[in-house]
TrEMBL record:
It comes from Celeribacter marinus. Pfam families: EF-G_D2, GTP_EFTU, RF3_C. One of its GO terms (molecular function) is GTP binding. HAMAP family: Rel_fac_3. Belongs to the TRAFAC class translation factor GTPase superfamily. Classic translation factor GTPase family. PrfC subfamily. One of its GO terms (cellular component) is cytosol. NCBIfam families: prfC (TIGR00503), PRK00741.1 (NF001964), small_GTP (TIGR00231). GTP binds at residues 25-32, 93-97, 147-150. This is Peptide chain release factor 3.
């Protein structure tokens, strides 16, 4: 184990105790409820119900936007830190809606592991599958939580089979449910030979945990009705025959996922899941970068921006760049080099995100997420170092799949609109193109709902009603190559040229034929559907 990338005996204890992860799930599977229970056990909130508003607000589209408007809630949920059993957990929120796959992908570049929540009655749903594929691209270790076991749910082996089949990953039961629905009494902890009993009367109570000596222990008869006990013995025997045993190496490599069964709303199985993350989850992992990768135990501080959020507080036009620290021990007031501009920045007001509060971060370690308020210097993909010229790689910008034109409801306000759009472009919330000829803007997104969210944010944050409309274009390609050829191409195709928020030329068209034509006429130029965020 010691030579694997996942564990290093040499990591300073402060770094080794960090677990930075995200929760992935299909809407309604119970992510918000589980998050809340995590915070409860982590001592970050006093009472269940404090983050509840988010789950409720997410029910419908318009409510979802209301949640977006309610920056206080969505912001505190972007990254949360809390302590659990000697570990520091950093939970990074993945946006809830499938339309935000781009944002989600970038969020997952900032974590070392993921918890996949599935609904015991529904199994693997579409959004879970998509998010899982993203985790797989990064070989992230995944812990699975099968939720809502207090309700009628599917057969345990069937659920496990479905995960193995649909997601092509081995599954090992960390716990085994006893009874289903109304008859559900708790779980047998397969990793520690313990009986965990659910208390239906008190939803916030930690389950009673009883140590037993295997499945023949007579103590079991005292707590489990005979027919359920018989069934448990049979099923566990079968599971042990058919399913792989827990193997930490395989888990860390992302080829095996341990599954816990529980009920988030009844606080059941949650502590065991957290124990699993603390005990088996990965320490802060090396970060891919050029010209070399960054290791968490390096003395010098390095970090990268994976998310930018503008207008967190509508009263101040601040932006917060979310930075994942890849190495070192950060202290408030430190001067870091912003590698893209080669400028120094004194980081005097970094924030840590604790449940519902922002707090000044006096210090932070590799693995932590800090927020750096700034006026737009920090962009997604930027690297901060103590002087070294190194750039974190692998934070992509996706090709926009939908293009629409946008105009301010009031034509006198088009400068304001430009400002708002540029801000969202820098956040990575949309691609914004300014046509070389004519007025107005073209906005490109990955999912249709993003247009609605943008319109609602522009109105709320900038007081500007806007109208999105059909664009004559359907594809965007960034053009690069020798300057003279680039200029010639731009000048002879003006009606197709726009500029992105960095001022880089983009070729817009609705015909593949046009793209082929440019490639034929200008063989030295490259037309690319994506642009790595730098
Ligand atoms: P999400 O963030 O993944 O979208 O899910 P969320 O936690 O908001 O949960 C979705 C619904 O499932 C909520 O019900 C929640 O109470 C319920 N739920 C979560 N965990 C469990 C569980 O272990 N057992 C059962 N039976 N239900 C669970 P809702 O009716 O939509 O909202 P509410 O009225 O309960 O607040």
């Amino acid at each position: 184990m010691s030579d694997s990338a996942h564990t290093s005996l040499d990591l300073p204890a402060e770094i080794a105790r960090r677990r930075t992860f995200a929760i992935i799930s299909h809407p309604d599977a119970g992510k918000t409820t589980l998050t809340e229970k995590f915070l409860l056990y982590g001592g970050a909130i006093q009472m269940a119900g404090q983050v509840r508003a988010k789950g409720e607000a997410r029910r419908t589209r318009s409510d979802f936007m209301q949640m977006e408007k309610d920056r206080g809630i969505s912001v505190s949920a972007s990254a949360m830190s809390f302590d659990f059993d000697g570990h520091r957990f950093n939970l990074v929120d993945t946006p809830g809606h499938s339309d935000f796959s781009e944002d989600t992908y970038r969020t997952l570049t900032a974590v070392d592991a993921a918890i996949m929540v599935i609904d015991g009655a529904k199994g693997v749903e579409s959004q879970t599958q998509k998010l899982f594929e993203v985790c797989r691209m990064r070989d992230l270790p995944i812990l699975t939580f099968c939720n809502k076991m207090d309700r009628e749910s599917r057969d345990t082996l069937e659920i496990i089979d479905e995960i193995q089949e649909n997601l092509a990953i081995d599954v090992t039961p960390a716990s085994w449910p006893i009874g289903v629905g109304r008859e559900f009494v708790g779980c047998y902890d397969m990793l520690h030979d313990r009986l965990e009993l659910m208390d239906r009367a008190d939803r916030n109570k930690v389950a009673a945990s009883i140590s037993i000596k295997g499945l023949d222990d007579p103590k079991l008869d005292e707590h489990i009705p005979a027919h359920l006990l018989e069934q448990l013995r049979e099923e566990v025997e079968m599971a042990r025959e058919l399913l792989p045993a827990f193997d930490r190496e395989a888990f860390l490599e992302g080829t095996l996922t341990p599954i816990w069964f529980g009920s988030a709303i009844n606080s059941f199985g949650v502590k065991e899941l957290m124990d699993g993350m603390a005990q088996y989850g990965p320490e802060p992992q090396p970060q891919k970068a050029e010209p070399r990768s960054i290791h968490a135990d390096e003395k010098k501080v390095m970090g990268f921006v994976f998310k930018v959020q503008a207008n967190m507080d509508p009263k101040h036009r601040d932006r917060v760049a979310f930075v994942r620290l890849a190495s070192g021990h950060f202290l408030r007031g430190m001067k870091l080099t912003h590698v893209r501009s080669k400028k120094q920045m004194a980081i005097s007001n970094p924030v840590l995100f604790l449940a519902s509060d922002r707090e000044l971060a006096e210090e932070a370690w590799a693995g932590d997420i800090i927020g750096i308020p700034n006026h737009g210097q920090l962009r997604i993909g930027d690297t901060l170092t103590e002087g070294e010229e190194i750039r974190v790689t692998g934070i992509p910008s996706f090709a926009p799949e939908l293009l629409q034109s946008v105009r301010a409801g009031d034509p006198m306000k088009s400068k304001h609109l430009e400002k708002a759009l540029m801000q969202f472009a820098e956040e990575g919330a949309a691609k914004v193109f300014k046509p070389a000829i004519g007025s107005g803007f073209i906005v490109g997104v990955v999912g249709a709902l993003q247009f609605e969210v943008l319109a609602s944010r522009i109105e709320l944050e900038y007081g500007l009603p806007v109208r999105f409309g059909q664009s004559q274009f359907t594809s965007a390609r960034w053009i690069s190559g020798p300057r003279a050829d680039l200029e010639k191409c731009v000048n002879t195709n003006k009606q197709h040229i726009s500029y992105d928020h960095d001022g880089d030329p983009v070729f817009l068209t609705r015909l593949q034929w046009d793209i082929d034509r440019i490639e034929r006429d200008f063989p030295t130029l490259t037309l690319s559907a994506t642009k790595e965020m730098m």
